[in-house]
């Protein structure tokens, strides 16, 4: 098979870089590996069927800019489609007579593949209190649609985070 993916980024300054509109589209063929599965979930079973994920489209559009001299923002919406997306699913507990591996006690995860569509809305704020102290807040709302699974297993609908950075001196931060 031959895969062709878009890779387009557009930025347009609306108000002397205080407000920038942006949009883009990209795609990717992600070669899943056992090591990446273990990094994400250390409780996966040792024998997995590993298939590449074909991210057909990731289209996004939004705005970024400055509200004040020390307060900036970014808000965007995105739509993604992925074929053979890998979902983690807990393995069932096997009865006493058929268990011969440690991961057969219901304490491990397997991988299930399904097609996935994701609609996301993201926003972030960055506050620069001084040249030494910066703080940020990010939030994202995700809506998922799958072909065969009843819902998108173990994927969050809402994520948020707070970060901060403080520079003590030139060597320490």
Shape: globular
- Order of strands across the widest beta sheet? 1-2-3-4-5-6-7
Average the pLDDT over all residues and give the rounded result.
Answer: 89
Number of helices: 1
Radius of gyration: 21 Å
Total beta-strand segments: 7
Question: What attributes characterize this protein structure?
Answer:
about 170 residues, about 5% helix
Explain what you see.
There is one protein chain. With 173 residues, the chain is mainly β. It contains one helix and seven strands, in the order ββαβββββ. It has one helix spanning 34-40, and strands at residues 7-13, 19-30, 53-68, 71-90, 109-128, 133-146, 158-166. The chain has a seven-stranded antiparallel beta sheet with strand order 1-2-3-4-5-6-7, with no helix packed on it. Strand 3 and strand 4 form a beta hairpin. The N and C termini lie far apart (48 Å).
Set down the secondary structure blueprint.
Blueprint: E1 7-13, E2 19-30, H1 34-40, E3 53-68, E4 71-90, E5 109-128, E6 133-146, E7 158-166
Antiparallel strand pairs: 1-2, 2-3, 3-4, 4-5, 5-6, 6-7
Short note summarizing the structure:
The chain has 173 residues and is mainly β. The protein has one helix at residues 34-40; strands at residues 7-13, 19-30, 53-68, 71-90, 109-128, 133-146, 158-166.
């Amino acid at each position: 098979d031959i895969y062709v993916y878009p890779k387009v980024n557009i930025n347009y300054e609306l108000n002397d870089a205080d407000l920038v509109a942006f949009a883009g589209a990209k795609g990717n063929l992600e070669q899943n590996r056992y090591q990446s599965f273990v990094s994400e979930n250390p409780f996966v079973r040792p024998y997995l069927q590993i298939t590449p994920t074909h991210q057909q489209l990731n289209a996004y559009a939004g705005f970024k800019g400055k509200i004040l001299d020390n307060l900036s923002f970014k808000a965007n919406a995105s739509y993604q489609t992925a074929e053979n997306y890998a979902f983690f699913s807990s393995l069932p507990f096997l009865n006493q007579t058929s268990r011969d591996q440690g991961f057969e006690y219901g304490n491990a995860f397997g991988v299930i593949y399904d097609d996935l569509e994701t609609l996301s809305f993201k926003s972030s704020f960055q506050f620069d209190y001084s040249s030494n102290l910066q703080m940020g807040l990010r939030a994202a709302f995700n809506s998922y649609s799958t072909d065969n699974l009843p819902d998108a297993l173990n994927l969050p609908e809402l994520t948020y985070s707070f970060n901060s950075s403080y520079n003590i001196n030139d060597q320490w931060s």
